[in-house]
Amino acid sequence: MITLKEGDKAPSFNGIDQDGHEISLKDYKGKMLVLYFYSEAGSPTCTLESCNLRDNYGLLKKKGFEVLGVSPDKQQAQKKFQMKYKLPFPLLADPDNKITSTYGVRDMKKLFGREYMGILRTTFVIDGKGTIRKIFFKPKNKAHAEEIIEQVPM
């Protein structure tokens, strides 16, 4: 369950990206970070969202945003996803659900009447001082970059 709110200090994290590099929140000090959580590399909705961010990556960077994706996939799955869709930003592998649990995006979900633990697609925009400026619950998968640019003043 997501208990973080806009204005809260973003929890620190560190993880390994698709290329084996360690990345942490402190690497983004002084920058605006779009930290988006998705359930599974290659799933239809998550692919649409990731590709929207990819297609608008130049504009996001121009507006001052960095992008970082996180899912419970292993590093190899993240690499395959990144290569297949030519994603220009890092994807953190979180198979132990440390980061997803810290941010509260791992919760019970229901599909066809069956309950299971899953990831709530959520994006946190974190400013350069580590404060959560905006939280997008259920982001618009085909227009996520646009909603970030429209709703997060720089």
Walk me through this protein's architecture.
With 154 residues, this protein is an alpha+beta fold. It has a single domain (29-151), classed as Glutaredoxin (3-Layer(aba) Sandwich), CATH 3.40.30.10. It contains five helices and nine strands; from the N terminus they run βββααβαβαββββα. The chain has helices spanning 44-55, 57-62, 75-85, 98-102, 144-151, and strands at residues 14-17, 22-24, 32-37, 65-71, 91-93, 106-111, 114-119, 122-126, 132-137. Strands 2-1-5-4-3-8-9 form a seven-stranded mixed β-sheet. Strands 6-7 form a two-stranded antiparallel sheet. The longest helix has 12 residues, at 44-55. It is globular and about 40 Å long.
3D shape: globular
CATH fold call: Glutaredoxin
Mean pLDDT: 94
Work out the strand percent.
25-35%
The low-pLDDT segments are: none
Give the CATH superfamily. Glutaredoxin
Q: What is the share of helical residues?
A: 25-40%
Q: Kindly give the count of domains.
A: 1
Number of helices: 5
- Tell me the distance between the termini: 28 Å
Specify the CATH architecture. Answer: 3-Layer(aba) Sandwich
Describe the biggest sheet?
Answer: 7 strands, mixed
